[in-house]
Specification:
Elements lengths: L4 E8 L6 H21 L3 E8 L12 E10 L2 H10 L1 H4 L9 E4 L11
Antiparallel strand pairs: 1-3, 1-4, 2-3
InterPro entries: Dimeric_a/b-barrel, Sec-metab_biosynth-assoc, YCII
Pfam family, one: YCII
Protein name: YCII-related domain-containing protein
Length: about 110
């Protein structure tokens, strides 16, 4: 039985004018892959980061990046998964600002252990 570790992924989007369109273009494929990783217990929680103005009443939710918590055997395994994600391949996530770090949860994580 292999030992699994927990990792936090911070993946802000590029900020150029075309970035939102690139995100929407590959979003269905990204979500399909994420659902599979959730079912496999690799992604424990994940979602989109929103712009601060997104929380104003009636405001459109503007996605500006993603955060996820992964469970895997190594940092390299998570890096490989992230680098194969449609958001990474499709130049949605800013590759220079992306961060993957080991993570120690202070509260229980959702999903299977």
């Amino acid at each position: 039985m292999s030992t699994k570790f927990t990792f936090l992924v911070y993946a802000p989007d590029y900020t150029d004018a075309e970035a939102p369109q690139r995100r929407l273009a590959v979003r269905p494929k990204h979500l399909e892959g994420a659902r599979q990783l959730v079912a496999e217990g690799v992604i424990r929680v994940g979602g989109a980061m929103l712009s601060p103005e997104s929380i104003q009443p009636g405001a459109e939710k503007k996605m500006v990046g993603s955060t996820m918590i992964y469970e895997a055997e190594s940092l390299e395994a998570v890096k490989k998964i992230v680098e194969e994600d449609p958001y990474y391949v499709g130049n949605v996530w800013d590759k220079e600002k992306l961060v993957i770090l080991p993570y120690a949860a202070a509260t229980p994580l959702p999903g299977p252990a």
